[in-house]
Design brief:
The chain is α+β, with helices and mostly antiparallel strands and 208 residues long. It folds into two domains: 3-47; 52-206, Protein Transport Mog1p, Chain A, CATH 3.40.1000.10. 37% of the residues lie in helices and 40% in strands. It is built from five helices and ten strands. The strands form two sheets. It has a seven-stranded antiparallel β-sheet, sandwiched between helices. A three-stranded antiparallel β-sheet has the order 1-2-10. Helix 1 (3-17) runs antiparallel to helix 2 (21-49) and helix 2 (21-49) crosses helix 5 (194-203). Mean pLDDT is 81; it is low at 33-46.
Length: 208
């Protein structure tokens, strides 16, 4: 048990004695969240140990993905390559490659344009879209930027089944292209599958 959990339990015991029973309930809820989060983290780590991964390689890119996930590749006029890996549950990971609008654009400039464009599109469509984290990271050994967000989701097998979805979108620039990887899952499943998604992200290589 962590020190923070021990402190929260001690506070919950003292709160009623100090005449504040509602604070005790708040502290106990925080204890439950911390313990549940730890359980999810352990389960997620164990899931990668028992999971078999296979290699996908195409168009100067490499990535491993779970052998029991479905792989789909398709192309369109605006995106050079898209591959999507989907689990039997809601989680999915997909890769997109975009041609940069200008050869001399910086990562900061591209990130600002991408985030601003995403926010504008979601606002026009009246989608309840929230960015909860935006930070500089690395991808395939290159400087990158990532956002973590929530948005409405739906079950592709049941269009009437709606839920809150959580996603992580990370992108980097190389040779006039933007390479973006997105991990999306139901908010309730995001932490459970995060270790698998992280293994996929860590395995990603740009070989072209």
């Amino acid at each position: 048990m962590s020190e923070s959990v021990k402190i929260l339990i001690a506070d919950a015991i003292l709160d009623p004695q100090n005449g504040d029973p509602s604070a005790a309930l708040t502290h106990l809820n925080l204890v439950n969240k911390q313990l549940t989060g730890a359980d999810l983290g352990i389960a997620a780590a164990q899931s990668t140990q028992n999971q078999e991964f296979v290699l996908w390689e195409n168009d100067g890119m490499k990535i491993v993905y779970p052998s029991d996930w479905k792989k789909e590749e398709y192309y369109d006029a605006n995106v050079r390559t898209i591959v999507q890996f989907s689990s039997p549950a809601t989680p999915r990971v997909y890769i997109e490659v975009f041609e940069l609008p200008a050869s001399n654009i910086t990562l900061d400039e591209y990130s600002k344009q991408t985030i601003d464009g995403l926010k504008s599109f979601m606002a026009r469509e009246r989608v309840n879209f929230d960015i909860i984290e935006s930070s500089d990271v690395t991808l395939a050994g290159y400087p990158a930027h990532q956002i973590v967000y929530t948005q409405p989701g739906f079950d592709p097998n049941n269009s009437s089944e709606q839920f809150r979805e959580k996603g992580l979108n990370i992108w980097t620039l190389k040779n006039g292209n933007a390479y973006a990887i997105t991990y999306v899952a139901a908010e309730s499943e995001f932490a459970h599958f995060s270790a698998i998604a992280q293994k996929m992200l860590d395995s990603f290589e740009l070989t072209g």
